[in-house]
Structure formats: structure tokens, C-alpha cells
Amino acid sequence: MPRTARTHAETSNVTKLPAIDPKVPICALPPVPDRTLPPGINPFRASLIIVNGRKWVNGTRLHYYFFDQAAPSAWVGAEPQREVVRRAFKAWKDLGIGLEFSEVANPADAEIRIGFDQGDGSWSYVGRDVIDQAPDPNERTMNFGWDLTTPYGWVTALHEIGHTLGLPHEHQNPKAGIVWNEQAVLDYFRGPPNNWPDSTIHWNILRKLNLAEVSGSTWDPASVMEYAFPAGLIEQPAAFRGGVPVAAGLSPVDVQEIRGFYPALAPASDPELVAFESRRLTLAPGQQANFRIKPTMSRRYTMQTFGTSDSVMVLFEKRGAELEYLAGDDDGGEDRNALIRHRLDRNKEYVLRIRLYFAQMAGEMAVMLM
Ligand SMILES: [Zn+2]
Fold first, then answer.
1. Residue 170: which of 112, 228, 124, 127 has the closest Cα?
2. Distance from the alpha carbon of residue 46 to the mean position of ligand 1, in angstroms
3. How far is the CA of 202 from the centre of ligand 1 (A)?
4. What distances in angstroms separate CA 132 from CA 43, 98, 111, 115, 139, one per listed residue?
5. How far is the CA of 340 from the centre of ligand 1 (A)?
6. How much of the chain is in helix, strand and coil states, percent to nearest 5?
7. Beta pairing partners, 305
8. Which of 142, 166, 190 is at the close of a domain?
9. How far is the CA of 27 from the centre of ligand 1 (A)?
10. In 3-state terms, what secondary structure has residue 352?
């Protein structure tokens, strides 16, 4: 094979992106208030609630919706744009994670509601904030503000979905040790194509995340959750004074982290939770326990955790191959235990999932069905 042809073949399937393009517009997260926790709460406990509290319970099926004619017309995306978003959901799912994604035709059935307003930039709420911050089915939880049918558009679609799965911005990782040239950052982002007000620059760039919101031990500049920065904005680490290139896609660390938080599930092998038999839970913060429930009687049941712990507990009903969300309770930061009261039918099967944020003593926690 001629050398030139081989070179072409070797590189033709690699996504080509400009190393550093100072003209690229970037994602701006909408500001949201911090979760309210009781005053005096132990900072370690608070940090675990903050880091885990925005993530979904693994096994959740997230429904996404594209606004159509009924919405403000600027929100409606052309079919090729929608197709990129569908492929990006599939790319995350194909990593083998336990979350499920389905497209739905009615906004009231969707946790994730997507617009393509070209004048509103690209953004998403982070994790379960999509429910807490946008409870109205007429609201968007995600917007795409530029063409997605380019290599950069593909990375943008992966990035915004990453936010919806609970991932924050990498460069705000306090462990990254980034020292900004603040004036250069302000000058750059005030100008086109971003044209951001200073409040947006502070929220998305200069603000450091609470240490616990970031689970990685070091900064991952290759993360799909990282921005591209031109030269001159970063003073430290010195290696990035020349800028940070556009991410090429999901980085190895992205893949490892999302699989760690949402591992593949095997519902058939979940232990059964039997009425009046307490089950001890030995979970590390962020870990999840899953139980099958096959009621022997149709009646109202109570499901409750015991022990000094913070957790989120969610009940699903099995419908064919799918699990339908029935009820959930989050006791993070409160002096009580997660509790669900719900009628269960003896002809049906249920799944109960418990994600631990914090436990006073490892292993000193239990769950019971009554
Ligand atoms: Zn972002």
C-alpha cells in the first residue's frame, strides 16, 4: 500500500478537531441554589450529600422529549439535530451503564426536555436538578445553541447529557489546582462568540466547586466535561498556559467514572426483600443496594431504612421488561429515615433501590418491608 494511502486510512476514522479554537462557544450552566442542609451539619456528611445527591438512583429510566410545533418555535430542532442527541444518549448507554433512556412524545412523561434555541447557548441542569429546578413540563432542562452535526456538536451533545447524568464541569474541580488569569478570563468570555455577563463567567469558570461535588482525584483535561480554553487564561498548571484543546469525546476517566457510579445491573440476581425481615446494608457512600419485592398480599406496605444514615430510596414496579417509578424518598441531612408507604399488589413485582450518601457507622444500616 502506498504510504500516503495508508496514512490516510489510519487517520480517516479519527475525529479531527482543531487543537485549540478560540472562537468556539461553550456551555453555560444555569445558576441553581445549593441544596439546603440543616445548620451545624458535619461538613463531611454535607459533602457526601452534595456529591451524591444530584446523581440518579442507578436503574432509573430517564425519558427525553424534543419540543415540537407546540413550543416556542425557536425551541424546535430539525431532525438531523435530534438524531445527534439520540446517538449521544446511546453512546453513554453503550458504556454498559445501569441507567436507561427512552424518547417520549409527551413532555409530561419526560424528565429531560430538550430545546434547540440557537440564541440561548448550550446548557443543561445537573442530575436530579432537572426535576427540582424545572418541574413544569413546559420548561426546558437542556438546550443546544449551535449546530450539532459537526465534530464539536457531537462533543457538545455528549457534554450536556453528561450534566444530566450528574457530572459537573471538570475545570471547576478544586483538585485541578487551576490558577486563572482572572482579567484574561473576563476579557475573553465577555467577547464573542460567548458574550457572557460577568455573573455567568463566575458561575461557570472562576467559581470552584465544593470539594465533594467532584469525585475524581485529579483534573482530567481530556474529559468531555472540560471546556476548550485558548492560550493565556490559565496561569497554573504551567502545562496549560497554551490552552486546553477541545475534547475528542468521552475520555478513559469519563468512562471509568460513569461506570463506577452507574454500574450495569442484574435485576434477576437481586436479593428478595421479604416482609418483616430486616436486611442489613453494608454500603460505602455512593453505593446502592437493590431488592426484589414479590408481595404475598395486596395491601399498603411501608418500606423504611434504619440507622443514622442519609440515603435516597426509590420504589419501582416491574412492567414487562421495564421498571416504572412509583415513589421515592430522600432523607439527606435530616434526622429521620427514608420511608415509603405504597400499596403493593400480590400479582406484581417490584424493585426497591437504596443509594447511600452517608452512614455514621459503616454497615450500621438496615432496610425493612412492613
Ligand atoms: Zn457544561
1. 228
2. 24
3. 14
4. 23, 22, 10, 18, 12
5. 34
6. 30, 20, 50
7. 367
8. 166
9. 4
10. strand
User: Residue 9 domain-assigned?
Assistant: no
> How far is ligand 1, taken at its centre, from the CA of residue 108, in Å?
25
In-domain check, residue 228: no
Distance 242 CA to ligand 1 centre (A): 21
Tell me: the pLDDT tens digits for 210-245? Answer: 665 555 557 788 899 988 889 999 998 888 898 888
Q: Indicate whether 301 belongs to any domain.
A: yes
Q: Ligand 1 centre and the CA of 168: distance in Å? A: 7
Domain count, the chain: 2
Would residue 310 count as lying in a domain? yes
Model confidence, pTM: 0.84
| Separation CA 285–CA 212 (nearest Å) | 12
Q: Which three cell numbers stand for residue 200?
A: 455567568
- 250-283 pLDDT tens trace: 999 999 989 988 999 987 789 999 999 999 988 8
Task: For residue 98, give the CATH number of its domain.
Answer: 3.40.390.10
